[in-house]
Amino acid sequence: MTDSTPTGFASLGLPFPILRVLDELGYEAPSPIQAESIPSLLEGRDVLGMAQTGTGKTAAFALPLLTRTQVDFNSPQVLCLAPTRELAQQVAEAVKTYSKYMPGINVTAIYGGSDYGSQLRDLKRGPQWVVGTPGRVMDHLRRGTLQLADIRAVVLDEADEMLRMGFIDDVNWILEHTPRSRQVALFSATMPREIQNVAETHLKDPVQVKIQTKTTTNDKIRQRYWFVGGAHKNDALLRIAETEEFDAMMVFVRTKQATEEVADFMQANGFKCSPLNGDIPQALREKAVEKLKSGQLDIIVATDVAARGLDVERISHVINYDIPSDTESYVHRIGRTGRAGRNGEAIVFVRGREKRMLRDIEKATRQPIEEMPLPSAKQVNEKRREKFQAQILDAMHSERNQPYREMIEAILAQNPVDALDVAAAMASLLQGDKQLFINEQQDARMLEARERESRNEARNESRGERGDRRERDSRERFDRAPRAAAKAAPESRPKPLKGHPEVEMVRFMVNVGYNDGLKPGNLVGAVANEADLDSEYIGHIEIMENFAVVDLPNGMPAPVMNKLKKARVCGRPLEIRPYSESEIPAAGGTTRPVRSRNEGFNRDRAPREAGNRDFAKKSYRAKPRADGAAPAARAPRKAREG
């Protein structure tokens, strides 16, 4: 008789729709914090959890509270408070993923730095889950655009971080405006006195969960990160693959589509590479792994799910092309190298806005991750020269090459040319139209400019985090009238940019405009993220009532353009297409005086949407500090709008 006792997540009492998603995501067994928190939260009990970032806290509270959410009741039932907009976005996306097979579940993220218009539209739809930063949640509560009367559970994620950022009074204020009968889950990496006070005040007989973490990475694996800036990720991956001495390489990406795109790019550049994702039949996946083991493949590009349980001793390098969303995934990924006592190399690509995740990984693994420079054009060219020379030497077979030798002898006999010139011409034919060497001077200038831009992105992200701390002092920003620049006449618009000096720019139209709440930053963010395009290569932007135009580099790949067509901004698909004056009358509308990117449009705000003008009638003063000191001075406008 077989034992039919449920195991893994099924043993915790989670329903089938959630178990189905977990199976697709490759979650086999609950982490310690999940195993101890989920049953208590399913029972409706309060939980006080002490665990580091990356231990699986999001699933620990999201899975049971989704189970308790009433799908047919369109009113906020779960409120999750997070210290930063980045974490709020991550939690919201995770909840959406976990509720994939629960039709009717709506999740809304509200945080500083995002326009109120889109958040208001989302809140009016009646989401059951609201995830937000304390400052923005307070804004909506005071404006009456968020109601907490039906809240059944409140989650405080990374409570110690909210304390560090000065949000703890806001957290108490928000909790006081929730029903006393609500359930509370508080998670914190540490438990200072102020967090204990919150727990004692607002939690009822909580179940206490404490998870001790240890260093979980192999000390034989050297860990490095490349700060995304000097080149696109594909170019960076190619440079690393060309200059690093590797046996086999595993590249981790976030989506199935990315496995295909990155694998195609590496194949086109001479590497034996194959994708590995959940859409590929199991038999073909096993065949690809066998080829990697036998040396018939150099590189596999995979998603986390597809690489589950993969064990190939040949893998000397793991590249995190897309940084994982949690530290457990990172540890799992880099564990593919350094097998059987061998040394391994792990490299992670990090954008400016992902620096916080890098710090979380270092904290959770208790190991530093050193920054690495991108291989220079000189290094890449030297490797290409060596490889090309080796190809020529390998091809020197007297018998097989006899017909070609005879042709060259005839050329030399009939023409007054040098034999070396003939050999160089043959090498050129071998290389074809593809340029063999990188222009070193041009590359150095480009790297310097784009590295500088990425550093600026990191600094802006840091400022944005500081801006989150000052959200409480920014409530009255809607009192101000639109700037004079927003009232400028159309004639004052700047002339179109020519874009990057070495890139030919082409004008495109998108199907989103001023009436949809579009701002230049929305469009730049969408294009930069979906096309993996540095903002240096996004040119002039003009926003009309019902559409907008943007200058982009000529020759954008078809797969990238297809992604951009489907990308959504302000709730609408971009539907990007080449610019056509004949479409303008049909699209209608007049041009709004939006400044070009190189003239600092982020410093000029477009006129407020009509729906936001009522907010100008309200203003809020900063609350007195607990220590009796005067409220902090108002932050500069740019910081406050973070």
UniProtKB/TrEMBL annotation:
GO cellular component: cytosol; ribosome
Extent of motif Q motif: 7-35
Pfam families in UniProt: DbpA, DEAD, DeaD_dimer, Helicase_C
Domain Helicase C-terminal: 233-380
GO biological process: one example: ribosomal large subunit assembly
SUPFAM superfamilies according to UniProt: P-loop containing nucleoside triphosphate hydrolases
Function: DEAD-box RNA helicase involved in various cellular processes at low temperature, including ribosome biogenesis, mRNA degradation and translation initiation.
DEAD-box RNA helicase Q domain location: 7-35
UniProt entry tagged with the keyword RNA-binding: yes
Organism this protein belongs to: Venatoribacter cucullus
Family affiliation: Belongs to the DEAD box helicase family. DeaD/CsdA subfamily.
Gene this chain is encoded by: deaD
Protein origin, superkingdom: Bacteria
Gene3D superfamilies: 3.30.70.330, P-loop containing nucleotide triphosphate hydrolases
Keywords noted in UniProt: ATP-binding, Cytoplasm, Helicase, Hydrolase, Nucleotide-binding, RNA-binding, Stress response
HAMAP family the UniProt entry points to: DEAD_helicase_DeaD
Stretches the record annotates as Disordered: 448-500, 583-642
InterPro entries from the UniProt entry: CsdA_RRM, DbpA/CsdA_RNA-bd_dom, DEAD/DEAH_box_helicase_dom, DEAD/DEAH_RhlB, DEAD_box_RNA_helicases, DeaD_dimer, DEAD_helicase_DeaD, Helicase_ATP-bd
PROSITE patterns on file: DEAD_ATP_HELICASE, HELICASE_ATP_BIND_1, HELICASE_CTER, Q_MOTIF
Family matches, as PANTHER family: ATP-DEPENDENT RNA HELICASE DEAD, DEAD-BOX ATP-DEPENDENT RNA HELICASE 47, MITOCHONDRIAL
Name of the top EC class for this enzyme: hydrolase
Composition-biased stretches (Basic and acidic residues): 448-482, 490-500, 596-617
Protein name: ATP-dependent RNA helicase DeaD
Cellular compartment(s): Cytoplasm
